[in-house]
Amino acid sequence: MNRFFNRGRDNLSDAKPTSSPATPSASPVTGPARPIRLVYYDENERKFHMDPEAVATLQLVKEPIGVVSVCGRARQGKSFILNQLLGRSSGFQVAPTHRPCTKGLWLWSAPLKRTALDGTEYNLLLLDSEGIDAYDQTGTYSTQIFSLAVLLSSMFIYNQMGAIDESSLDRLSLVTQMTKHIRVRASGGRNTASELGQFSPIFVWLLRDFYLNLAEDNRRITPRDYLELALRPVEGSGRDIAAKNEIRDSVRALFPDRECFTLVRPLNKENDLQRLDQISLEKLRPEFRSGLDSLVKFVFERTRPKQVGATMMTGPVLVGITQSYLDALNHGAVPTISSSWQSVEEAECRRAYDSASEVYISSFDRSKPPEEVALREAHDEATRLSVAAFNTSAVGVGSARNKYEALLQKFLKKAFEDYKRSAFMEADLQCSSAIQSMEKRLRAACNASDARIDNVSKVIVE
User: Fold this and answer.
1) pTM, whole model, 2 decimals?
2) Does the UniProt entry include the keyword GTP-binding (predicted)?
3) How many independent structural domains does the chain possess?
4) pLDDT band per the 50, 70, 90 thresholds, residue 411
């Protein structure tokens, strides 16, 4: 799978392992690397598309997937954070964001094998959101990309330079717009942020080049306390105050599980900041490295496979969910979370049923003699392989899976009865043909001019 990510570009440098102690061990991604786009917006067609290269990569990932998205304005260091999560001290950059093809969601690496604190094994997928600040006249594009990143993620990191102020909160007005662009279910009216919140990822507000001394009422506070203070309702009245509080209320409701991390300026020299990805961690300020270690540790400890209801996200599920959302957006409709996940669960279980049926047919040992015990042994082995194939590909534990499990059992029973009936009929025909052949030879031996009992006996023995 790494071959999709190891096709070098002329301006990419070889990756070097990071020395950060908080960086966990992961499957190595060697050689020149580059991100590949998952979703992009064609400005000529004015439609969203999935890149076939990313689709082909994700279709191979049958295990659970946890998605960590890094979102924020362009040229504010998202690539550095992504490279640290990937386990690199130097890495690669997405092409300049003014190019139309770079707007969208980008896979930053091949999936990384991880084990959650509860022992769950899954694949970590890093996702970069490009062009969030590239508003069209209505702001629709940014809201749609922002919404997609949130809905696909297990953890959503909002990368920002400086402190939280009214300007930065205004940029998160995208959160209030999400309720207009996404629905929880097909029936019912407009959703609230709190209804969407049950499907939302862990939200991490990452403040870069942070310079404030965190204190409140002459006591030190944590970055999380600082975030909660910033999200408190503003006192007063009027339209401006109401708009400010709507944003704050939406962030609190949409992201009930939230955290904040601050990173000081990594270097003092401005020229060095322009090539941060090429400077070893040892040369960065100790306070910065400490904050970075805490962030990376938090990400890997708290990330879990994405799940809605009983359906765990895998590579094929991620492809299906994303395509379902894009189909709705491209047709001017509002994507529906529950319907999208249900349709993907249905499609994946149907695909698992088709595959399991083929496995049964191809693995049934037709060399067995047409006897009940022998055929039953062949059936049991083919059934075992078929059910294993189904369980490998099927998703969820709900009605769709139950339906196709029942259909598979019916298919296996019918296929066995059909084959058994066919085998017995063929055996019967072979026996009848043998008896008729023996009868002819016996008659010929008995009617021969030199017929003798010995000659007749030889026909019977043969």
Assistant:
1) 0.74
2) yes
3) 2
4) very high
